Inverse folding.
């Protein structure tokens, strides 16, 4: 079969990438989807068992930091488009090992930009490079206001600094070389297949196993939560409809203080686990705050809603219940991750707090 597009999706074995792959492979049988992933601690092919045998899906294990391998792959495969999600994504790990974030998030992105520029040089207009980024590049808000697409960058963690840098490179390749780029900056995602170092899956697992819930600082920081499948839908719409060189913010207008969110989660889990009301809340344990902890994120996604007609599909309380159900029903997926190496990280990360 001859395919209409051959899209390289990087980081497809991770949390959001696996949802993007699932959506594209199923929705576009006339696109060939190539998933490139290094399978770091966060990459897990078990996230993709339902699509791994689809004829329009294939997987390549590769490091985006390896410029030579990336260039050779682009020359051989002649991708028509790129959707770039591969990244080191956990803020706490960026505090322990910033250099790894520079390598993957900055150098890795530049390697992909160079390879795309090289193979598309004679016909730039026909190809799209979509860079998936985060609202953390905008820094931290006070009690009011929201991030818009024109908010000045002000990153505070090594993670957000590396993502901000990669965004700047993507824009520079558009302005300097005419690469047809698009960037989106999204708020906190939640849902199935998220690695249990991030707040929600970590706390679901700790409640289930009766472990303390380590709340950083006073739990007053605010995040704006979006269902991961709504993020994947937004990426689909932006990939197909956004004007070249533009940026879109993606978010659910759904702000929660960490402590309110954790209490809601405890309540939902009490019910699901048939515990007495208030039982899981007893696990809450306030620990040393994250260094440089951003106080508040809130995304204004009006531009995406108005220009491209995207809206979030799921109401938050329903999303939390669905998410809890998924992690409880997929105990094997969770256990396979939480045994072994991840356990070592967990002990090191939280014994110091
Ligand atoms: P994740 O950590 O779950 O997945 C990252 C994937 O990238 C993993 O599969 C990993 O193996 C792969 N990877 C890492 N280094 C690599 C390398 N050198 N070469 C090839 N592959 C490599 O991350 P996620 O939460 O799914 O985030 C995906 C993207 O979305 C990231 O760019 C992140 O900055 C962005 N983002 C995430 C969120 C969120 O809430 N999780 C919100 C907004 C934006
Ligand atoms: O805003 C988008 C970003 O959201 C993405 O770019 C990142 O890749 C993603 O990891 C996420 O970053 P956060 O730092 O907001 O997510 P995390 O799940 O690590 O933490 C959410 C909030 O919960 C944050 O305020 C820190 C707090 N927290 C987190 C952990 C892991 C705790 O209080 N205790 C914890 O153990």
């Amino acid at each position: 079969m001859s395919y209409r597009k051959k899209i390289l999706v990087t980081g497809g074995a991770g949390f959001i990438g696996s949802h993007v792959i699932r959506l594209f492979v199923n929705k576009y049988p006339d696109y060939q989807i190539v998933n490139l992933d290094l399978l770091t601690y966060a990459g897990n092919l078990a996230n993709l068992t339902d699509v791994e045998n689809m004829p329009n899906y294939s997987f390549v294990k590769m490091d985006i930091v390896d410029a030579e391998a990336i260039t050779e792959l682009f020359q051989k495969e002649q991708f028509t488009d790129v959707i770039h999600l591969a990244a080191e994504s956990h803020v706490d790990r960026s505090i322990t090992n910033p250099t790894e974030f520079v390598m993957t998030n900055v150098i890795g992105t530049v390697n992909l930009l160079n390879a795309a520029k090289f193979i598309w040089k004679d016909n730039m207009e026909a190809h799209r490079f979509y860079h998936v980024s985060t609202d953390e590049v905008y820094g931290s808000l006070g009690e009011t206001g929201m991030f818009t697409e024109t908010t000045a960058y002000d990153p505070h963690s090594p993670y957000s600094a590396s993502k901000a840098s990669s965004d700047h490179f993507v824009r520079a390749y558009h302005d300097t070389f005419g690469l047809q780029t698009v960037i989106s900056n999204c708020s906190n995602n939640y849902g199935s297949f998220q690695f249990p170092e991030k707040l929600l899956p970590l706390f679901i697992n700790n409640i289930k196993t009766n472990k303390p819930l380590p709340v950083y600082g006073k739990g007053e920081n605010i995040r704006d939560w979006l269902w991961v499948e709504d993020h994947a839908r937004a990426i689909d719409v932006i990939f197909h409809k956004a004007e070249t060189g533009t940026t879109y913010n993606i978010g659910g207008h759904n702000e929660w203080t960490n402590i309110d969110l954790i209490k809601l989660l405890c309540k939902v889990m009490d019910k699901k686990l048939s515990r007495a009301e208030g039982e899981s809340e007893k696990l809450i344990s306030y620990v040393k705050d994250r260094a440089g902890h951003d106080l508040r994120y809130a995304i204004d996604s009006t531009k995406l809603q108005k220009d491209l007609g995207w809206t979030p599909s799921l109401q938050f309380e329903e999303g939390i219940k669905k998410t809890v159900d998924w992690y409880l029903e997929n105990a094997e997926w969770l256990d396979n991750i939480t045994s072994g190496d991840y356990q070592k990280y967990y002990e090191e990360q939280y014994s110091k707090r």
User: Anything to note?
Assistant: The two ends are 56 Å apart (CA to CA). The first strand starts at residue 5 and ends at 10. The mean pLDDT is 96. The first helix runs from residue 15 to 27.
